[in-house]
């Protein structure tokens, strides 16, 4: 499935839910909770270890990331949001908030905050 676009993901999530008649269960609150639950399952794979995931764990990591993304797409669908547009707008906002010429090369989050504090906001 190379070349998958954000809109494709949103459409796939919509079709999956519609084919099963689950939209009546997909209330925004429940979908938001599901995103958090799936994110916790992803985090659990990294709990108590400093090592990189093994190949076996890597597949599980991918599955949990996919669950989070699919629930995000379903939430966007339930709210009538264009997820691709929301992502583009957020990246643009973050680009203004964290300009490359100010934050690139910082050694820590503390240094980023210090640099931003000295930087004139547009």
What is the name of the CATH architecture of the largest domain? Orthogonal Bundle
Tell me the series of helices and strands, N- to C-terminal: HHHHHH
Task: Sketch the major β-sheet.
Answer: none
Q: What's the CATH first level of the largest domain?
A: Mainly Alpha
Report the portion of residues in β strands.
under 5%
CATH superfamily of the largest domain: MazG-like
Would you tell me the overall average pLDDT? Answer: 92
Structure notes:
This protein has helices spanning 6-20, 28-44, 55-79, 83-97, 100-103, 109-118. The protein is mainly α and 122 residues long. It folds into 2 domains: 1-81, Helix Hairpins; 83-122, no CATH class. The protein is globular.
What's the topology here?
Layout: H1 6-20, H2 28-44, H3 55-79, H4 83-97, H5 100-103, H6 109-118
Helix pairs in contact: 1-3, 2-3
